[in-house]
Amino acid sequence: MSQFKTIIFDLGGVLIDWNPEYVFLKEFRGNREKMDWFLNEICAWEWNMNQDAGYPLAQATEDRVAMFPEYEELIRMYYGRWEEMLGYTHEDTLEILESVVQNPNYKVYALTNWSGETFPVALQKFPWLQWFEGILVSGDEGMRKPHKEIYELMLHRYNINPQETIFIDDSLKNVEGSEAVGIKGIHFVNASSLKKELIALGVAL
Q: Of all helices (H) and strands (E), which one includes residue 174?
């Protein structure tokens, strides 16, 4: 019998495909270099992560437009067309999720860096999100991974023992954040390697 009784999944990059490219590659007429520059310099990842910690989308948009007025139309597309960036389910990872959810020996949760304003769109699009016993959304809590506080909140809210818990995330920093509070972390690369790592830890799949 495995020592692990709780499994926590990240969502974006592990179970859900999300990519601004779905909007902006078309807007830049297939010019990936220009698109990458825009997403690195104007609507940068660090800026988006601020909204994952609860900063209002409308205010974030106005802040950016004020900084880069020449890119106003494109900046407004970032959240204005956010739903188009929401892609498909990673079906191979979903199979793993389904396997552990159906096993009464495990409690299964999700911990995601996600704006509280856009997460309801995901809930509508992906019915399998109802499988989790609980989902902690960073934007609703005003904190995000990899900061220690969000993992501690997760443990406290759902009465989770960290020594009996596995956390899966495609960000190495987020995995390291979980391990800092005593949770066993798995850095997600693909479903095949995840399955092997879970089996090696004694998880029944």
A: helix 172-179
- Cβ burial, residue 29 (10 Å; 0-12/13-18/19+): exposed
The structural domains of the chain, with segments of one domain joined by +, span: 6-17+87-200, 19-86
CA 24 – CA 36 distance, rounded (Å)? 9
- CATH class, 6-17+87-200 region: alpha beta
CA torsion 193→199→204→205, rounded to 10°?
20
Phi and psi for 143 in degrees, rounded to 5?
-155, 160
Tokens 């995995």 correspond to what residue?
175
pTM of the model: 0.94
Q: Mean pLDDT, to the nearest integer, of 5-29?
A: 97
Helix (H) or strand (E) holding 136: strand 134-137
Q: What is the CA radius of gyration of the chain?
A: 18
